[in-house]
Amino acid sequence: MVMEKLGGSLQDALKKLVKSGRIDEHTVNEVVKDIQRAMLQADVNVKLVMTMSNHIKERAMKEDVPSGMNPREHVIRIVYQELINIIGKGTDIPLKPQKIMMIGLQGSGKTTTTSKLARYFQRKGLRPAVICADTFRPGAYQQLKTLCGKLNVTFYGEEGNPDAVGIVERGLKEVEKYDVIIIDTAGRHSLEKDLIEEMEQIHAIAHPDYKLLVLDGAIGQQASEQARAFNDSIGISGVVISKLDGTAKGGGAISAVSETNSSIAFIGVGETPEDLEKFESDRFISKLLGMGDIQGLIEKA
Amino acid sequence: AKALVFEREFILDEKDLEEPLWDLQIALLESDIALTVAEAITEEVKSELVGSRRKIGKDTTDIVEQALRNALYNVMSANIFDLDDYVRNARKPVHMVFVGINGTGKTTSIAKTAKRFKDMGYSVVLAAGDTFRAGAIDQLQIHGDRVGVKVIRHQEGGDPAAVVYDAIQYAKAHRADIVLSDTAGRMHTNLNLMEQLKKVCRVSTPDLIIFVDEAVAGNDAVERAAQFNEAVPINGSILTKTDADAKGGAAISIAYITGKPILFLGMGQGYDDLQKFDPKWFVDQIFE
Ligand SMILES: Nc1nc2c(ncn2[C@@H]2O[C@H](COP(=O)(O)OP(=O)(O)OP(=O)(O)O)[C@@H](O)[C@H]2O)c(=O)[nH]1
Ligand SMILES: Nc1nc2c(ncn2[C@@H]2O[C@H](COP(=O)(O)OP(=O)(O)OP(=O)(O)O)[C@@H](O)[C@H]2O)c(=O)[nH]1
Ligand SMILES: [Mg+2]
Ligand SMILES: [Mg+2]
Q1: DSSP structural state of residue B249
Q2: B263 vs B85: CA distance, rounded Å
Q3: Structural contact between residues A188 and A214, judged by C-beta atoms closer than 8 angstroms
Q4: CB A56: neighbour CB atoms within 10 A?
Q5: Residue A142 above 70 pLDDT?
Q6: Dihedral (C-alpha) A212, A228, B244, A88: value to the nearest 10 degrees?
Q7: Which residues from chain B sit within 8 angstroms of residue A41, using beta carbons?
Q8: Which of A4, A174, B10, B218 has the fewest CB atoms lying closer than 10 Å?
Q9: What is the CB neighbour count within 10 angstroms for residue A178?
Q10: How far apart are the first and last CA of chain B?
Q11: What is the ipTM of this complex?
Q12: Given CB atoms, is A247 within the 8 Å cutoff of chain B?
């Protein structure tokens, strides 16, 4: 089908550069166009892609090809640097006592990621406790309670009580003596004023050290706008990209971190508590662009 | 372009179209229509327009936009299917299975659909066929209680096909009109879970399989719609979370790739936030 035919296009375009052996405008244009397509297909914000590709084009033409590099490697290196400028190295969540608040759109993976993080800290020898501040979604309490039960993680929640702020206040006292306290909140989007306000109140009560925005790996052009809204509201300290075990490329997260000047902490690669990985920018970029040799290339430079 | 055919007409060539088509393609991408689909549709429009005669004085951009609107409208209104007519005329109980990726809004859409049919005077039974995800059965039960419809459930970890079977038996015994079966969210790439879904659909022989995806999804919508449609041929889709300010171009990707209609839009978390899909309205708002 359409897709299959286009899949390897970036690789092909880059091969053209190898063949041509020198940097000329026509070839660069062609390669940049294919990089553009790869980023658009990965759901990077359209405007961001356009700005970036212009920049890449300029640099590829202007800068000297480093010795020992062919033109293909030269362009990839520039693409990589531009992406790394945005993504950075990733947020490192320290292994120490702290409070973490989970936020994000409906169904993005907050509750699942809450249990994954609890598991992560548990394995590192810290004692986690989880508070359920989602009083909105039916079954949210049972979902988190069940997940925590399976992990033997302390859980605080008040079934049927709609007062999320009160629950957090009481919950924090209740689990005070635990090392890492993770607060799961209801899903919401930027236009749901009441829910955004509720999030601000929870934030004001909880004083979390980290506010992690959980973004679905398949989110499209809404990523930047939603991330900006969450950031404006309570500030985000890092992003978790969920559901990267399918075919989604997670480019929305690039738009989000670019918009909010934050960075990515973890990725979710499945539904079980073990399916959490530390974010690695090189691997992420390789997958995003559909090529495997970024790491080696960068070391060569 | 300037070649005058005869008075007051000219022929559109590729060069005339390049810029307006590119601009429109960007607009499509910003609406979250998948790149491959946006390209395919603009390509169709291009081949339709190149060589055609136009009145002098008509703005090429307007011509291209109109052609593109028509093309999108055609995608969205192909194989239109009126669910209400179908349900009215079908043998009861009508059985519908809801399928899709994790967290897109299947369970919530079932609750909304149940409320809708109940308001129309039908009796509805829900099958808690997501026996996998923590809290999924409770979630559906709470929705069922609030909407006032029966929920058939087994234990967490149980066989989804068995739950669905029981729900259908219950509906037959109680002369219920409609059975709506929930299924666990799953990745289209997870072979085991896709096999399990095929099994549920094989043994329960649903009348309709409804694919649920969300308006905030980007390019991946194409991939998963294609693969779900291949695994368990779907009859139509629901696009949720359109209230999140998303243009919902995913609906176009899905309709284009599956050739199946969009039935409803989910427009919020309330039970009444379900709107019948209107192709014209939808295409117009893409160009807003
Ligand atoms: N395959 C896969 N599924 C995931 C991943 N993370 C979460 N999920 C699934 O996605 C669905 C939604 O996850 P939740 O954790 O309930 O999402 P949420 O953000 O808490 O949802 P709300 O509370 O309704 O806003 C569930 O079916 C999860 O099992 C992941 O990394 N991979
Ligand atoms: N804003 C908004 N939220 C929605 C809409 N539809 C569903 N949701 C929310 O999205 C989240 C996930 O919905 P579910 O119905 O649990 O999704 P699901 O597909 O059943 O999820 P899994 O069973 O985990 O795969 C919940 O918080 C819902 O309230 C909608 O149209 N608009
Ligand atoms: Mg949740
Ligand atoms: Mg569900």
Answers
A1: T
A2: 12
A3: no
A4: 21
A5: yes
A6: -60
A7: 34-36, 219
A8: A4
A9: 19
A10: 29
A11: 0.96
A12: yes
CA distance A44 to A253: 8
Per-residue pLDDT, B57: 76
In this complex, is the C-beta atom of B44 within 8 Å of any C-beta atom belonging to chain A? no
> In angstroms, what CA-CA distances link A152 with A9, A149, A272, A277, B133?
48, 5, 14, 21, 18
Distance from CA of A21 to the nearest CA of B (A): 30
C-beta atoms surrounding B3 within 10 Å: 7
Ligand nearest A110 Cα, by number? 1
Helical ranges in chain B per DSSP H: 14-30, 35-49, 60-77, 83-89, 106-119, 136-147, 160-173, 191-204, 220-231, 250-258, 279-286
> Rounded to an integer, what distance in angstroms lies between the CA atom of residue B112 and that of residue B147?
8
Cβ contacts of residue B237 below 8 Å, gap of 6+? B210, B211, B212, B213, B225, B251, B254, B255, B258, B260, B261, B262, B263
Please name the residue that has the structure tokens 């009560």: A205
Q: Which two tokens stand for residue A73?
A: 């490697």
A246–B214 CB contact, under 8 Å: no
pLDDT along chain B (288 residues), means of 10: 64 90 94 96 94 84 93 91 96 98 98 98 98 98 98 97 98 98 98 97 96 98 98 97 93 97 97 97 92
- Whole-number pLDDT of residue A26: 82
Q: For residues A126 and A142, give the distance between their C-alpha atoms in angstroms, rounded to a whole number.
A: 24
Q: What pLDDT does residue A287 have?
A: 87
Which residue of B25, B214, B242 is the best one to mutate when testing the A interface, meaning the one whose CB has the most A CBs within 10 A? B214
Tokens of A191: 């236009």
Report the C-alpha gap between A2 and A40 in whole angstroms: 16
Q: DSSP code of B166?
A: H
Note the residue count of chain A: 301
Residue B128, token pair as written in the block: 């808690």
Q: Is A136–B220 a contact, with Cβ atoms under 8 angstroms apart? A: no
